[in-house]
Amino acid sequence: xxxxxxxxxxxxxxxxxxxxxxxxAADKPIVGVRVGVKNGGCAGMSYTMEFAxxxxxxxxxxxxxxxxxxxxxxxxxxxLGSEMDFKVDKLAASFxxxxxxxxxxxxxxxxxxxxxxSPEALAAAEG
Length: 127
Fold this sequence. Notes:
It is a single chain. This protein is an alpha/beta fold. Helix content is about 20%, strand content about 40%. The relative contact order is 0.24.
């Protein structure tokens, strides 16, 4: 488990409150939310989120606003600098990502094209 001096990602106030609500209502102990990316969708990649019952040895651990995010090391360069938010509108409520590494998104909003941050950007962020 890596617990960085920097935050690979951040969480908005709205996202933090929603994650806290969901974790509190879970029917089993949850240590945090695992965030990542997977191949798929019309733009090439989509964001993933799931409950995490344990921290994996190589997870990047981000704690922000009382919420613990676990990032798989394979997804770290795709998510570096992102903010997770929670949006509510008239027809839907969902988590959204503001990712400086996104290069495009599909029209339906379900997938994105992401260029990974360079290893140099990661090294600079770690200071």
